[in-house]
Design brief:
mainly beta, four-stranded antiparallel β-sheet
Length: 130
């Protein structure tokens, strides 16, 4: 029973009693031990942090329902979908200008030491002071 419960929590997240209304088919992505990002079918996005749910606006329509990579820093969420980069500003999503070299795909995204790192096409792009 514990194994099944942990598997479910890992894949679809814990039950969120004070979560958003009418949020079916959510996409759940763990960001840390008690922190996660999830979306609803209508593209509403939220951060779950130790039981507290914070709205992050509507996920960009340009991404459809595809999230490739996620990272979180300073209460904001960074996401890649296809070859576009996005960042939340409270409840608004804004694109982040891509590096000069055209990346065909991103293989990972991370945030460390105040810098955003994006890997793709055998290169790593760094942008600090986001």
């Amino acid at each position: 029973a514990d194994k099944e419960r942990l598997l479910e929590v890992g894949q679809v997240g814990p039950r969120v009693p004070d979560g958003p209304a009418k949020c079916q088919g959510r996409g759940w992505h763990w960001l840390g031990r008690n922190r996660a990002f999830f979306t609803c079918d209508d593209r509403r996005a939220f951060v779950y942090d130790s039981g507290t749910v914070t709205p992050k606006g509507k996920f960009p329509r340009q991404c459809g329902s595809t999230i490739s990579w996620l990272a979180s820093a300073g209460g904001e969420v960074y996401a890649t979908c296809g070859t576009s980069l996005w960042k939340t500003d409270a409840q608004t999503w804004r694109p982040i200008e891509a590096p000069k070299e055209r990346m065909r795909e991103f293989s990972s995204i991370a945030f460390a030491d105040g810098c955003l790192f994006v890997a793709g096409n055998r290169t790593v792009w760094r942008r600090c002071g986001q």
